[in-house]
Amino acid sequence: MPSQVRSTFALPPEPPAVPDPLPEPGIDELRLETVMGALSDPLRIFIVRKLLLDSESYDHPCGWFGIDRPKSSLTHHFKALREAGVTRQRQYGLERRSQVRIDDLETRFPGLLALVAAWEPAD
Question: Which molecular-function annotations from GO does this UniProt entry contain (predicted)?
Answer without folding.
Answer: DNA-binding transcription factor activity
